[in-house]
């Protein structure tokens, strides 16, 4: 195919679309409104901490096939680190309990029969929660499907909040069920945890930009698309502050932008395009220490720890930085930010001191709070129904983004899957 493919947005969906389409025929131009690519999955130099940090933490599972294919195509597989086993250290602050979930590698869940590998105090009948989630209807919430007990409280609830970025009493059971079908139900081989060895940009962005450069893909940063024109069922013009880009008959567009931006650009152009209208935040805190903590046990092997019974949900250790992620953070929006940071640091000390060679100081050397106010759409049954697919009534336009209907919540896998689907929808490349 000749012509030009314009990809609007260089977050994970846009970069995945560009990597998928590269070499398929058309010239490709990626338009990114900001100074840097990567969207919510990038690194930057933080002046307050005096070091480079990620704007959030992302834990990948080996089940994320689209992500790992992307990393393979961009030559970034060796930028990941992890325990090379389906291990997940946890601490329960409320009940002063610690354990390491150690999943069986195959589909047969032998781990549930071995107390030292499973969630403490869980009962085998509690596994019915998994069946109920995987078979949930579109109107059911996660809470509707969970049986009371340690298995739900100590695994399924934190897993749900992390995957959906939405609390269990409103989160979509069908979306969580889709995640479980692609991960936990397939066994530990599909649940190997991985994360960026150095930083998100070094794993997800920089290798992709180098690959796209090698493939003669043009990436334009600070290239904001301010509007589009439509005629006879096609997008005919892209407006920027500097110029109008006239599209030829063989040109096409993938709009890989957040839902509000897509709706703004397409206002009065396409009837019936719907998108989520409610959003959830993610709170990330980065604590810098004067010296690198020396971890022990499974915390040392994994480099991260799940935390329940407090505000803190996940702690990641990279050199002398302890990073905390709190999902579904709208519930904390009215709290004083300094008080919240102090509470979380106290929880980090409680969670980590027992598995470090030396206890943490009373206060960190420096800290940075990163609050993504509209990180993802609220993954409720109602909002999930508002998601549209990649195809549009305009023959040369496809939509991408973690808010589109991928069948998954707003995860990295969902975002990249949407970009790949958009390329296939336009017929630029056929799925394998």
TrEMBL record:
Spans through the membrane: none
Protein name: Amine oxidase domain-containing protein
Top-level lineage group: Bacteria
Cross-referenced PANTHER family: BLR3003 PROTEIN, PROTOPORPHYRINOGEN OXIDASE
Native source species: Acetobacter pomorum
One matching Pfam family: Amino_oxidase
Gene3D superfamilies according to UniProt: 3.90.660.10, FAD/NAD(P)-binding domain
Gene Ontology molecular-function annotations: oxidoreductase activity
Matching InterPro entries: Amino_oxidase, FAD/NAD-bd_sf, SQase_HpnE, Zeta_carotene_desat/Oxidored
Span of domain Amine oxidase: 12-423
């Amino acid at each position: 195919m000749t012509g030009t493919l314009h990809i609007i947005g260089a977050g994970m969906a846009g970069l995945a679309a560009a990597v998928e389409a590269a070499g398929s025929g058309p010239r490709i131009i990626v338009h990114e409104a900001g100074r840097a690519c990567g969207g919510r999955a990038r690194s930057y130099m933080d002046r307050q901490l005096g070091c480079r940090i990620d704007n959030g933490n992302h834990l990948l599972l080996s089940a994320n096939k689209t992500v790992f294919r992307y990393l393979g195509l961009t030559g970034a597989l060796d930028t990941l680190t992890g325990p090379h086993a389906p291990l997940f250290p946890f601490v329960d602050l409320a009940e002063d309990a610690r354990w390491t979930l150690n999943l069986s590698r195959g589909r047969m869940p032998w781990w549930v029969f071995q107390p030292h590998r499973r969630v403490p105090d869980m009962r085998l009948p509690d596994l019915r929660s998994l069946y109920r989630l995987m078979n949930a209807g579109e109107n059911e919430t996660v809470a509707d499907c969970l049986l009371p007990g340690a298995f739900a409280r100590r695994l399924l609830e934190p897993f749900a909040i992390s995957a959906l970025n939405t609390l269990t009493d409103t989160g979509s059971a069908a979306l969580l069920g889709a995640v479980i079908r692609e991960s936990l139900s397939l066994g530990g081989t599909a649940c190997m945890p991985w994360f960026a060895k150095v930083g998100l940009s070094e794993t997800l962005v920089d290798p992709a930009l180098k690959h796209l450069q090698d493939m003669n893909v043009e990436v334009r940063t600070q290239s904001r698309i301010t509007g589009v024109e439509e005629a006879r069922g096609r997008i005919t013009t892209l407006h920027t502050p500097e110029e109008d880009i006239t599209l030829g008959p063989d040109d096409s567009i993938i709009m890989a932008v957040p839902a509000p931006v897509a709706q703004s650009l397409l206002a009065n152009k396409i009837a019936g395009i719907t998108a989520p209208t409610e959003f959830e935040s993610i709170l990330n805190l980065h604590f810098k220490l004067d010296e690198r903590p020396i971890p022990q046990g499974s915390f040392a092997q994994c480099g991260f720890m799940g935390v329940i019974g407090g505000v803190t949900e996940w702690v990641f250790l990279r050199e002398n930085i302890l990073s905390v992620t709190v999902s579904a953070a709208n519930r904390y929006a009215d709290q004083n930010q300094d008080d919240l940071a102090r509470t979380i640091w106290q929880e980090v000390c409680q969670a980590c001191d027992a598995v470090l060679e030396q206890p943490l100081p009373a206060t960190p050397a420096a800290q940075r709070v990163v609050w993504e106010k509209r990180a993802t759409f609220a993954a409720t049954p109602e909002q999930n129904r508002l998601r549209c697919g990649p195809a549009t009534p305009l023959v040369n336009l496809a939509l991408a983004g973690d808010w589109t209907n991928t069948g998954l919540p707003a995860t990295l896998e969902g975002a990249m899957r949407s970009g790949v689907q958009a390329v296939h929808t336009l017929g630029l490349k056929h799925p394998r």
